[in-house]
């Protein structure tokens, strides 16, 4: 049975049992305590906790998941993957295990046709009830095993819902391992499905040996389950492991075509490459680009590990393969996961970019490693130190397996104990940092609790910029306030609000609130808190009270300037995709009055002529005056209509679509102009890199673009005045003439200076002292003569040339600069051959002026603050040179 059929049968089976199908959520969870979506239940956490209501008490889903905890097992066992699809049925206070157990059994045996005699189950320690239910459906007691917290209690690894679970396994037969059930071997007895009886609440504390930090119970008992699509496919398709099932195998085949060979250890490497490219492809398509921390780090690690194993598969030969493999993942799964197809360009470019960058890392790391190997061998060591392996891994992204392999080739071990200790230390630090982050982001503000009263607020600001309405929430310092007066900073919640709250990159509105009694509040910002539009306001005069009726008016001019930027942003997005390719997607944006910032996924810098073309195209589009049409529909309808959605965003049941002309269609909750020409002009200010694969474009819109042009014109006029030309057009020519003259003057100055230095060198060389066949030139020079070290270097070289080359000798010069004594000493070859170094010779003189001496070989410098001792120091240096 093909995996397509497995998915369809599962969803149908539960739909027939009154479950509502809910689409998979993004791999980026809407939850600060979780890095990635690791299971089907993740998107439903608020339903378990009772903080939100499910659309129906019974749900069913197919969820894409990425889980990296078992990354070391990939390719070693038959069953592990970092990237997998999970089917699940969910009950929120509705049915329980009495239904779920027989349904699971019926699905596996009747629908999929699995042999009931090969099914084994596990239950939590003393969960007699579930054990009895399994017996009732026909699984004999000797195939029901009882395990502890590690195996039969499920949680997300952090705070949230949790509960005992019951797992269903399939016995693949003696060829796959020893007998004895899943308690003995989980490769032979393959876990297919986990039924979790969610009833407790896990806290933030660390788990003990055999217990979790349970802090309470859920408001109602729930049930969730997870059936692994790949694992069921292994059984139904009669293959050995998850990399060989129908929707994974094409990637493996492609890899074998691209990188043929018979290297030892090939199987594991192949599976790792396939698995990691699949995971990276899904993550990239959900907008997670490779980076150095958080999710970005996960993607980077997966890609680098894949690259490393590609390198192992084919020895040291080069050539890129990951983009091609990513493309195969898209071909294989695009009909189930359309976002892969939609973002194929991005996936391919990101993989190619990372693979190339990692190629450079490997080259750089190899050089560092070869140096370390040479040093270790020179010191007759037998093992490369763990710190080097760790630095290579941590700072240079150089995998430790590769370090070990290269060291082994050179006949060295690696001190893996120290390496492991350093890794553990780093992990602890990361855990600590994560804990702190969670404290900041996860804490519910006192504010949201106050506002959690059932307030039905209406946002009317799409059509109205001022309304008469009532204050339903008045807060000071995050707590309810009955009254506030002049000088107070308050937060205000209105029943009807025309103020747009910061979201989707668009800044919050500002404006004015006036009460009937004449009090006035200046609204500085509008934010969303717990789903409410909350106004940050200052009471400018009078007194304001909760429940008062007020006039609320948005600063219309500012709003219009923001709307211009928002429409310009959509047009820019469309133009970027048109000119750069489909991989160019919005990765973040700021929409502010008169200006915008747009982050786009693109893997190299935008050249000035590209920016020019982008700017011209945007303006051309706007001047054609396209209509802006805004309409509402369901998310799936919008998707079908080709609307661009933002990565990872979760949308409600109704979405707002913004069309501009026939070239831009985006899901967007922001405010816009009615027609393109109302944006006025758009001026791009430039582009920069913000992260690997993300470029940032900044632009001005409307009046601000015009003001910017005015400003530039005034600057040019000023430059024209300074250059004494009447028309700005004449500036370039006049400037060229001036620059040529300046270059000429500088050249003549240099010549003059050189002849001055050369005359000085003549004089100083003449004045050299000669004692016992050794010579020294020692002079204190004025600051006017020596302007820089480079001057000193040239002068010394000239003096040296004029002194005997075959007799040992040296030149020592002193001068003061910015209130400090400076010394430099150069010794010639014959003196150097006596075994002395310039630095040692200059050292006592350096000490004399209050510093040390630096430099190497025949050259040394010294400096210190005791200017008054400079003459003595010079004399000392000269003496040292003569007597060394
Ligand atoms: N949350 C459980 C698991 O991932 C079942 O969905 O195993």
Low-confidence stretches: 434-450
What is bound: which ligands? Answer: serine
* Residues in helices, as a percent range: 40-55%
Could you report the average pLDDT, rounded to the nearest whole number?
91
How large is the share of residues in beta strands?
25-35%
Radius of gyration computed on alpha carbons: 36 Å
List the helices and strands and how they pair.
Blueprint: H1 3-15, E1 20-22, H2 45-49, E2 58-66, E3 83-92, H3 97-111, E4 119-124, H4 128-137, E5 144-147, H5 149-152, E6 153-154, E7 160-171, E8 189-202, E9 214-228, H6 229-237, H7 249-258, H8 266-285, H9 294-313, H10 322-333, H11 338-342, H12 344-378, E10 383-384, H13 386-396, H14 400-409, E11 413-414, H15 416-442, H16 446-451, E12 458-459, E13 466-476, E14 479-480, E15 483-485, E16 489-494, E17 496-497, E18 511-515, E19 520-529, E20 532-541, E21 543-545, E22 549-554, H17 556-580, E23 586-592, E24 595-601, H18 608-623, E25 628-633, H19 635-640, E26 655-660, E27 664-667, E28 682-691, E29 694-701, H20 702-723, H21 731-766, E30 769-771, E31 774-780, H22 789-801, E32 809-817, E33 820-827, H23 829-833, H24 838-848, E34 853-854, E35 859-864, H25 870-883
Parallel strand pairs: 1-2, 4-5, 10-11, 12-17, 31-32
Antiparallel strand pairs: 2-3, 3-9, 4-7, 6-7, 7-8, 8-9, 13-14, 13-16, 13-22, 15-21, 16-20, 18-19, 18-22, 19-20, 23-24, 24-29, 25-26, 26-27, 28-29, 30-31, 32-33, 33-35, 34-35
Helix pairs in contact: 3-4, 7-8, 7-10, 8-9, 8-10, 8-12, 9-12, 10-12, 12-13, 13-15, 17-18, 21-22, 24-25
The structure holds serine.
Serine (SER) binds next to strand 8 and strand 9.
């Amino acid at each position: 049975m093909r995996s397509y059929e497995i998915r369809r049968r599962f969803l149908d089976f539960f739909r027939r049992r009154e479950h509502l199908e809910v689409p998979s959520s993004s791999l980026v969870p809407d939850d600060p305590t979780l890095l990635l979506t690791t299971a089907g239940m993740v998107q439903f956490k608020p339903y378990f906790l009772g903080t939100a209501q499910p659309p129906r008490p019974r749900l069913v889903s197919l969820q894409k998941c990425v889980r990296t905890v078992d990354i070391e097992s990939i390719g070693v066992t038959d069953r592990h993957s970092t990237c997998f699809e999970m089917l699940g049925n969910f009950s929120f206070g509705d049915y329980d295990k009495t239904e779920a157990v027989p349904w699971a059994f019926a699905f596996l045996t009747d629908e999929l046709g699995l042999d009931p005699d090969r099914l084994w189950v596990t239950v939590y320690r003393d969960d007699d009830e579930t054990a009895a239910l399994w017996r009732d459906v026909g699984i004999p007691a000797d195939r029901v095993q009882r395990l502890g917290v590690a195996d039969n209690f499920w949680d997300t690894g952090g705070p949230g819902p949790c509960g005992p679970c019951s797992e269903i396994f399939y016995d693949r037969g003696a060829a796959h391992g020893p007998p004895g059930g899943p308690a003995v071997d989980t490769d032979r007895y393959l876990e297919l499905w986990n039924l979790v009886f969610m009833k407790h609440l896990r806290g933030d504390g660390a788990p003990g040996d055999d217990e979790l930090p349970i802090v309470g119970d859920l408001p109602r008992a729930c049930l969730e389950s997870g059936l692994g699509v790949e694992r069921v496919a292994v059984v139904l398709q009669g293959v050995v492991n998850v990399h060989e099932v129908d929707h994974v195998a094409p990637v493996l085949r492609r890899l074998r075509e691209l990188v043929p060979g018979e290297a030892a250890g090939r199987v594991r490497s192949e599976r790792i490459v396939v698995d990691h490219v699949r995971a990276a492809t899904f993550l990239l398509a959900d907008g997670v680009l490779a980076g150095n921390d958080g999710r970005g780090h996960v993607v980077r690690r997966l890609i680098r590990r894949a690259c490393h194993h590609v390198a192992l598969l084919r020895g040291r030969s080069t050539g890129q393969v990951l983009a091609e493999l990513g493309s195969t993942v898209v071909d294989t799964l695009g009909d189930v996961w359309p976002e892969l197809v939609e973002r194929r360009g991005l996936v391919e470019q990101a993989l190619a970019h990372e693979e190339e960058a990692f190629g450079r890392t490997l080259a750089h790391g190899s050089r560092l490693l070869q140096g370390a190997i040479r040093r270790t061998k020179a010191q007759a060591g037998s093992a490369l130190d763990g710190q080097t392996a760790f630095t290579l891994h941590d700072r240079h992204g150089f995998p430790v397996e590769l370090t070990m392999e290269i060291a082994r080739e050179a006949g060295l071990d690696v001190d893996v104990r120290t390496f492991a200790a350093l890794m553990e230390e780093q992990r602890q630090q990361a855990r600590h940092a994560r804990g702190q982050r969670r404290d900041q982001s996860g804490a519910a503000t006192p504010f949201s609790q106050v506002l959690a009263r059932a307030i039905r607020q209406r946002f009317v600001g799409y059509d109205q910029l001022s309304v008469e309405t009532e204050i339903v929430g008045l807060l000071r310092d995050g707590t309810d306030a009955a009254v506030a007066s002049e000088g107070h900073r308050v937060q205000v919640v209105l029943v009807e609000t025309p103020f747009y709250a910061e979201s989707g990159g668009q800044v919050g509105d500002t404006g004015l609130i006036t009460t009937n009694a004449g009090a006035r509040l200046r609204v500085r910002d509008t934010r969303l808190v717990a789903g409410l539009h909350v106004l940050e306001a200052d009471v400018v005069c009078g007194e304001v009270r909760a429940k008062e009726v007020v006039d609320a008016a948005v600063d219309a001019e500012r709003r219009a300037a923001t709307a211009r930027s928002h429409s310009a942003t959509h047009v820019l997005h469309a133009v970027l995709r048109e000119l750069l390719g489909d991989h160019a997607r919005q990765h973040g944006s700021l929409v502010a009055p008169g200006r915008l910032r747009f982050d786009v996924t693109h893997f190299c810098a935008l050249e000035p002529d590209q920016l020019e073309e982008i700017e011209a195209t945007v303006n051309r589009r706007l001047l054609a005056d396209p209509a802006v049409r805004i309409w509402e529909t369901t998310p799936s309808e919008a998707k079908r209509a080709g609307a661009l959605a933002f990565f990872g965003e979760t949308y409600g049941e109704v979405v707002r679509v913004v069309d501009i002309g026939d070239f831009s269609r985006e899901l967007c909750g922001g405010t816009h102009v009615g027609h393109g020409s109302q944006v006025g002009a758009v001026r791009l200010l430039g582009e920069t890199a913000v992260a690997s694969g993300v470029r940032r474009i900044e632009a001005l819109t409307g009046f601000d673009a015009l003001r910017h042009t005015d400003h530039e014109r005034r600057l040019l006029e000023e430059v024209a005045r300074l250059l004494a030309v009447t028309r700005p057009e004449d500036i370039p020519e006049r400037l060229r003439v001036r620059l040529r003259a300046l270059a000429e003057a500088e050249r003549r100055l240099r010549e003059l200076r050189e002849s001055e230095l050369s005359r000085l060198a003549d004089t100083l060389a003449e004045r050299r002292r000669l004692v016992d066949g050794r010579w020294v030139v020692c002079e204190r020079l004025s600051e006017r003569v020596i302007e820089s070290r480079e001057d000193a270097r040239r002068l010394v070289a000239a003096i040296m040339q004029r002194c005997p080359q075959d007799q040992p000798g040296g030149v020592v010069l002193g001068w003061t600069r910015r209130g400090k004594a400076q010394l430099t000493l150069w010794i010639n070859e014959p003196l150097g051959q006596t075994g002395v170094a310039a630095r040692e010779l200059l050292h006592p003189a350096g000490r004399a002026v209050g510093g040390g001496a630096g430099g190497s070989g025949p050259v040394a410098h010294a400096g210190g603050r005791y200017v008054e001792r400079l003459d003595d120091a010079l004399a000392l240096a000269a003496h040292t040179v003569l007597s060394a």
